[in-house]
Structures are given as C-alpha cells and as structure tokens.
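User: I'm putting together a small comparison set for a docking exercise, and I want a reference complex before I start. The sequence is below, and the ligand is zinc ion. Could you produce the 3D structure with the ligand included, as structure tokens?
Assistant: Of course. I'll restate your input first, then give the structure tokens for the complex.
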Amino acid sequence: MTKKKSIIIIAVCMASAIGITLFVKRGDSENVLERGNIQMLCSACGHSFTLPSQEYDETVKKNIQNRGPSGGNVFECPSCSKAAAREALKCPKCGNVFIPDWGREKDYPDRCPKCRFSEIEQEQRKK
Ligand SMILES: [Zn+2]
Ligand SMILES: [Zn+2]
C-alpha cells in the first residue's frame, strides 16, 4: 500500500514538473513584443471575448486556408459557435465593445456608438 502511494506521489510530482517546464518554456517563447489580447465581438449573439494575439494570428492563418483570404478575419464565437465574431474595439471611456467601421469616410472608424468617444479623434486633436 505504501509503495503504491509513493508511486502515485512520484507520478503527481513528475506531472507537475512537466507542467511547470512547459509553462516556463511557453513564457520564454513569448518574449517577442506582445500585442496582448485581441478584443473580439460576435455579430450573431453579441458575445464579447478576448483572444491572445498568438491564437488570433494562428486562427487567421487557419481561416485563410479554409475559407480563402476574405474569411481570414471571421472567427468562431465560443458562445454560439457561429463564424460571426470579428476583431472589435473596446471603448476606453465607457467600456462598450463594438466592431469599428473601417470603411467610414466622414467619421473616425473607432467612434464608440454608445458614448461617441473616438480615440483617433482624441489623438489628432492633441497635434
Ligand atoms: Zn456568438
Ligand atoms: Zn464609449
């Protein structure tokens, strides 16, 4: 019984040691300037979530392979599992998450539809 117990303890120790090694290794490979998390928003169910930039890049690559260049920036929503999630912006003022309208010509694409705050506009006013 004691022998069995010690085997289990050794197994647990080894498993956690492997886990720690993997964790440390991962941290090392990520020292290239991090973009942090990408804000995403699902246009089907309105679910907002964040993706690590690395995962974002990998998914874009995979999406382009599967759907062609036009489908590259459409992501599967973890909430409704529809391919309707896109890169979004989080308003620094009110925290509202929205999909910026990059085709907009007369206005700043990052203007928050809720409180009308635009970070680009703010930046340009400073100059
Ligand atoms: Zn969704
Ligand atoms: Zn806002």
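Strands lie at 37-42, 48-52, 75-76, 83-87, 89-90, 97-98. The chain has one domain: 37-126.
User: Thanks, that's exactly what I needed.
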